């Protein structure tokens, strides 16, 4: 137990350090120095209106977005992996991501949808994503209530994802280049466009979901030994299944319209957390996964700002790449970490 508490404390302190590093150094505004940021933290102003605006609207919101996205999607992946007893389970495999991307692509590519959502102005893509996520949630809950075998749910959800992906591919193939670029960057995932007014909604959804995850620790532990074992404890497996799918779909469908498709943190964070904490007990695994997801998001966010210049040279373009989409960085960093764990056989705990 001492080791587990020590490990969780270390990851928490690393996350805290990355938050301050991101606030102090996670930006390209060279006119803002450490003294300005210290003044802003303690006095709510740097003394310069322009610097205040940059910190409030550009630098700080992505830091909190990284925290909320890492927190929610990592635990979302853990719960789905426990339910399906499959390490590859994530919001993508349940079809939520595909639903959000499909309706976002409708708004981007279809003139009728664009005009229909025009009243929402710059938020039309967000509203379209919300609707897609909501429809996906409804379909997923219906599937979960009709199908008895949990493995069949993930098969049907994956097939639905491929079907919706085919529709998106057709729209992309017949779209103009400007619209394709808009969709492409949304699909890659980014937190740099987060506004201060977006944070209360994202934060509320994430914290409510985290509370649900901690309340679901007992049923999650029961599911580790199979649905028959959970039934022997008097638990309603069908209700647990619907609760897990509905809650994970809710948080993914609420957050992804803001940040796009950031999927891999839901796969990588639980995968990394298990060998670190050395147990499958969700009393320890949930907080470890949560903090690991935050760590991955903050590290990748920091990389997007600090290590982007070489890419312009490698790609043979004259202008520098301003910010790399965090989704692509997360796929690279998280993928390498997971491959390392598999190859080195550090992962010894199985669901």
Describe the protein's architecture and organization.
- By secondary structure, the chain is mostly helical.
- The protein has a single domain, classed as Orthogonal Bundle (ABC transporter involved in vitamin B12 uptake, BtuC).
- 76% of the residues lie in helices and 0% in strands.
- It contains 16 helices and no strands.
Chain-wise SSE layout:
Layout: H1 2-25, H2 34-43, H3 49-84, H4 96-109, H5 111-116, H6 124-146, H7 150-173, H8 177-188, H9 199-215, H10 217-223, H11 227-232, H12 237-259, H13 264-277, H14 282-306, H15 309-315, H16 326-343
As a percent range, the share of strand residues is under 5%
pLDDT average, as an integer? 82
CATH architecture descriptor name = Orthogonal Bundle
Helix proportion range: over 70%
Shape field:
globular
Encode the helix/strand succession as letters.
HHHHHHHHHHHHHHHH
The CATH class turns out to be Mainly Alpha
